[in-house]
User: Fold this.
Amino acid sequence: MENSALAIYKAIGAVQNVISNAQTLDEAIQGCLKTIVDNSGADSAVLWYADKAGDGTLHPYFWLGPVDLTRRSHAPGNGAVGRVYESQKAERLFDFDALQDVETAIDFKGMSVSSMVCVPFSSNTSSIGTIQFVNTPESGPFTDEVADVMEIMAMMAAIALEESGQLDEPWQPGEVVMELRDITREFQNGDVVTKVLKGVNLDVYEGEFLVLLGESGCGKSTLLNIIGGMDSATSGTFHYLGKDLSSASQQELTDFRRDNIGFIFQSYNLMPNLTALQNLKLIAELVDDPMDADEALEIVGLEERKKNYPSQMSGGQQQRVSIARALVKNPKIILADEPTAALDYSTSIEVLQVMEEIIKKGTTMVMVTHNEEITRMADRVVRMRDGRMHEVTVNRNRARATDLVW
Ligand SMILES: Nc1ncnc2c1ncn2[C@@H]1O[C@H](COP(=O)(O)OP(=O)(O)OP(=O)(O)O)[C@@H](O)[C@H]1O
Ligand SMILES: [Mg+2]
Assistant:
């Protein structure tokens, strides 16, 4: 690191810049954390936010790193995160192995923690939470200079944010429906092995709307296919409602998929020689407890179109039929891979409004998209990079489909 006073001035300028350019409080907070990480260097960083309306429990609000922390929490005083919040004094655990903070080890289960810094996220008058930094990219220890920068930047950010008002209540995740741990997927073509997923740790919660983003080729569709039982992981574990499906047979995966999962794709994949209603009935016959096909068409607003063939419908209408086809199974989870990519703006909004209604009724939805604007509707946003989870945000202010603009 360069001269530390200069580094601190630069870092403070960067934080102020982020806050003054942010459109929303969420954007400001997330921008601050990213800026602190950029200026100090850390592999993972977590912003723990204290629920002051309740008992002060700290919940993860935004984080960078490969571990799903969504349901983790710390009571004030509990673990390094809780201690720092209570004492308002930073903790610098440069040699983590020697210190063995059990609570933190649980947070980062599956990840080896070698060095950690926790700093208060507080101004002089109010305390927002704790920011936790884990591991340097070179896996050596953090230094005191770096920890100084982290501490000062966190304080600057808290002072600047204080004027912006309070965040909304944290989103409360439901029960874990799916648990993925250290999921890898390799493809072998001849002698060439391509590693696509490199250790994904993700939980999916009951009733949530999870949006998955990332650059083309980072492994989103591959992950979605594993979640939906269309493909198997090379290694790692996969539980559905507590049941271990990690080494399930093809037949078991087929049963799992048929009984629990609805799929929606970018291309609608409707049977061209069947009407909308017949397309739905075909699927309804396969499952034990289907929804009435007419009712499913009504939910997507197409009861008038039930006798139409796919070629007689617009793209948006066909996509709504394909949503109805997913719904007719009464699935626990709907997986959607870029469902609006082929649609224009207003048709996309119509489709998203249908999805919004379905989620409201309690169906869990995991959607892959390239559209940043859709993230505003999600309960959680997971960004992938190069086969791993890279960044997770828990949304507090969820936009409605009709609020989205692009
Ligand atoms: N059957 C396969 N054999 C070999 N490589 C594969 C196979 N399936 C996927 N891949 C590779 O895995 C990588 C990830 O593919 P995937 O479809 O999951 O990406 P994605 O994130 O969904 O991208 P996009 O946003 O373009 O849809 C790509 O490099 C792809 O070429
Ligand atoms: Mg894809």
Q: What stands out?
A: Residues 220-221, 337 surround magnesium ion (ligand 2) (CB under 6 Å).
